[in-house]
Amino acid sequence: MRKQFFRNHHTDEYKRRGQRTPIYWQLESSNGAFSCFVYYHEIDENTLPKLRGQYLDPRIDELENELETLNAQTSGDNPDKELLKRKEKVQDDLDDIKEFRETIDEMVDDGVSVDVEKGIWENIKEWDQYEVLKTGLPKLKSSYSR
Asked: What residue spans of 29-136 are helical by DSSP H?
């Protein structure tokens, strides 16, 4: 679902209904360590701060705790190779999510939200500048016959 829902299912579903606007937006970190869906009509000035406080920060805490445990488990002379692989994966995910959180913070600082008066495509265009959308504006527009 995370990899193909938005581009392949969501856009096709709304084309069949005669609508040409994606109402669920998939936000994703650059390497895919974090992904979520937001409902366009419910996005407000609190959406991004909530995303950070309720999902990003707790996930970062979990990964930091796991990394700390893995560091302790792999500190010996002959560490388990599977634990080392897991440690590398956790570190990569942690870095990816922290970078995503910085982008979300930048969007909050810039006052990014949704202005329904502008229309959905103008709002997507604004959000796409921050590269948080799983499927960016050029791919979205090609998915819809406008």
From this structure: 47-50, 57-73, 81-109, 120-128
